Amino acid sequence: MHSQETHLTEIEIEDRLKQHGYRLTAPRSVIVEAVLRHNRPFTAEQLVAELGDGPDAIGRATVYRTLEVLASVDVLTRIVSPDGHPSYISGAPGHRHHLLCEECGTTVTFTACPMNDLIDTLATDTHFLIKDHTLEVFGICPSCQESRS
Amino acid sequence: MHSQETHLTEIEIEDRLKQHGYRLTAPRSVIVEAVLRHNRPFTAEQLVAELGDGPDAIGRATVYRTLEVLASVDVLTRIVSPDGHPSYISGAPGHRHHLLCEECGTTVTFTACPMNDLIDTLATDTHFLIKDHTLEVFGICPSCQESRS
DNA sequence: ATCAGTATTGATACATGGTGTCAATACTAT
DNA sequence: ATAGTATTGACACCATGTATCAATACTGAT
Predict the structure, then answer these.
(1) A22 touches strand C (CB under 7 A)
(2) CA atoms of A65 and A22, how far apart (whole Å)
(3) Could you report the per-residue pLDDT of B106-146, keeping only the tens digit for each?
(4) Cβ contact (<8 Å) for A136 and B139?
(5) Nearest to B134 among A130, A132, A136 (CB)
(6) What's the Cα-to-Cα distance from A70 to each of A21, A105, A111, A136, B13, rounded to whole Å?
(7) Domain enclosing residue A20, as ranges
(8) Which residue is nearest to nucleotide D28 (CA to C1')?
(9) Are the beta carbons of B90 and B105 closer than 8 angstroms?
């Protein structure tokens, strides 16, 4: 019911972009490679900092746009923490939620969603047409608990 | 299991501020009155726009600080939508979640939280110390569904 | 292999949402 | 009434993200 994420390869990701009608460009390859190096949630600004200078610098706008594109083809998931700061997590097609360590960012993905029953009840009772929900869990992972004490 | 919110009065809110050691000031009264006029979620910037000019204008920083204070004493709840934009909802002490209409902002509060079981399972399986979770539901309310068709 | 068409890029400027500073003000307990 | 201190608001600043637009580069068709 929960698992570490299995990652797509660069080639699979680029295929997926093509299938959705996106062009394969040098900056996108660089960004995909950078994304694959992260196995923790990262922010757009972190990527900008990594890729935004040097000889083959990639523009801020391109980084933001590409992250959006990758999220739209289910290569990345964008999650928003309770303080409103978004970050991206590699690989998360389908309906998933995450358990994040607030200290080190370790992420556990789980597919068990307890919302289905609740959504039915809410829909019946309120007559809302229910479209979406957020559900993310935050805590401290075992190794951070240890290094605290 | 779900309900429209019952509102505190201005006096009750000001008592609550005092009980927490906050002073009663003119700007805070103005902000509390403004908050009570809203029965839909609102953003900090909306309040700034309402109160930020005219003869008794209230500074942007004061508005932001006061909203934080009101949230800290459970007069307001701050929720963050999937796109990362925070808004405030009047009156929500305790553990509550919300069902929001994406079109008109109508909000239904519910206390049924399906997370308890899941959290126990997650804690057992991952050994995380679980601290917090987000859970908000978004949809279209009955009256907006009607005016669509 | 070349070409034309168009998606993409990146520089820049701008927009939005929020925070830090600090002197001046105003609340509260005494 | 006064002293002490929380609070205010002006301002500058920061962080995150977006719009514009000319220049570039990918792609499919030839």
Answers:
(1) yes
(2) 12
(3) 667 676 666 777 788 888 887 888 877 777 777 787 777 87
(4) no
(5) A136
(6) 13, 21, 21, 20, 46
(7) 2-148
(8) A23
(9) no
**CA of A29 to nearest chain B CA: how many angstroms apart?**
26
Tell me, what CATH number does B132's domain have?
1.10.10.10
Tell me the pLDDT tens digit for each residue of A9-28.
899 999 999 999 999 999 99
**DSSP string of chain B, one letter each residue:** -EEPPPPPPHHHHHHHHHHTT----HHHHHHHHHHHH--S-B-HHHHHHHHSSSTT---HHHHHHHHHHHHHTTSEEEEE-TTS-EEEEE---SS-EEEEETTT--EEEE---THHHHHHHHHHHH--EEEEEEEEEEEE-HHHHHHH-
Structure tokens at B27: 């700007």
Rounded Cα distance, A92 and A81, in Å: 17
Would an 8 Å CB–CB cutoff place A56 in contact with chain B? no
Residue of A nearest to B145 (CA): A129
B81: CB partners within 8 A, 6+ apart: A80, A134, B87, B100, B136, B138
Distance CA B32, CA B13 (A): 8
Radius of gyration of chain B (CA): 17
Please state the domain count of chain A: 1
- Asked if B106 and B40 touch (Cβ cutoff 8 Å), the reply is yes
CA of A23 to C1' of C7 (A): 7
Strand A107-110 relative to strand A97-101, pairing: antiparallel
Average pLDDT, chain A: 81
Determine if strand C comes within 7 Å of the CB of B23. Answer: yes
Give the number of beta-carbon pairs within 8 Å between A and B. 129
